[in-house]
Amino acid sequence: MIIIPVKEGESIDRALKKLKRKFEKTGVVKALRERQKFTKPSVRRRDSVSRAIFIQKIQQDIQK
Hints:
Helix content: over 70%
Shape: elongated
C-alpha cells in the first residue's frame, strides 16, 4: 500500500501529484497493464532481443 503523508494546509492537488509520482516510481500501473494479457515467454525473449539490437545500433551510430 502506498502512503502519502499530507501536511496541514497542503492542497489536495499537490497530494494527488505526489501519489501519481509514487505510482510511476514503483511501477504499479505498468505491472497491472502487463497482467492484463498473457505473453508467451518466446515472444518476451524476442522483444527483449530486438530492443537490445536496436539500442546497440543506436550506440554504434553515436560512436561513429
